Amino acid sequence: MSNKNRAIGSRVISSTVEKVTVEGLNEPIRAAYLPIVENVSGNPECVFWDFELENGQGDWSNESCYFNKTSDGRIVCFCDHLTNFAVIMDYLGQEDDNNKPFQDVLTYISIIGCVISIVCLVITIITFIYFRNLRGKRPQRILVNLCISLLFLYTTFVIGIELTTCYYCCIVVAILLHYFVLTTLFWMLVEAVNMYLKFVLVFYDGIRFFMLKSVFVGWVLPIIPVTIIAVMDYEETYSNKKYCFMTPGHSFFYGLLVISAVVLVINFAIYVKVICRLTCQRKRVMKIKTDKDNELAIRVQNAIAILMLLGLTWIFGFFAIGSSEAVRDFFQLLFCLCNSLQGFFIFLLFCVRCKDVRDVWAYSCCGFGKKPGLYTTTTSRQRYVTDKVTTVSAHSANQNKA
Question: Right CATH number for 85-397 from 3.20.20.140, 2.60.120.10, 1.20.1070.10, 1.10.10.60?
Fold first, then answer.
């Protein structure tokens, strides 16, 4: 009805199983059609008859169906449903996106990236919880909470995003995904605030009960918007036939996008402030020859890397909203690559790259290196972005000389 210039290019195949709804299959349905229309220009499109369209009159829909190839003169169609990680920030819901092969690529990138991140996050969490000397101070505790939030987000996404066959299960998954996206963003905010206190306010002693307040912000505060939206109308917001996530609309806009935008703007402002402060102070600090000269450079590198990981890469999701198809595909690709592999990057930065963590694992597994108990200043010497800037060390060195 909406495309009257198009014609049915093959016979219609219909299959019905009484009292059974066939959807959400693990393997796509493969159908081969022999064309009945000759000498017709244009690209073939695989569709099915959706009885709910056009106010119940029905119409052809290409949702979850895509053209695969032409084989032996027949058009081969696959009908399934795949969802990529970029759906978290996709306000348009991909309703007008007919580029199924590219969306399939994004889906596989998302699934593979999430699985890799899940494994890396589990290792990171075990490392910092099992070795007591690695979780002594605020930066490590914030990192562990962020890793736990990301682990829940990735696991829920991989297991439940396609669980559309179970209505109430899908709603529960959508609510959990909304909650864990917000907890991840709020722990990014906590990380940014802690960095501001340590880098910009160098001699700041800290906020009383900072971790207790951080737990409230990171785990409790996200419950408020999720509860409000669920109480108002959970079926309209969290019931989605395409995937188990929020349906695009006002609740999605105000309950997720606006909150995400506010957090990212704050994180970006802190990022600029921290980098400017480190850049200005580095010249003064390098004049004082201490045993931590290289540590400042490492921390600067970590500051840039971790801020890109803990916030700025989520901005790619906003760039894809309302853009042309090519621009949208580009930023969705960046979003899927950077954010589905966020747990992997954290593992590289805070486990593989950190010498103290490598030494602890080497001693525990192979008996090499020092005993963990000999790490008298472990947490202060680890290469974490949220540790105090080396200026504090330089100040202490001057006091000792005096």
Answer: 1.20.1070.10
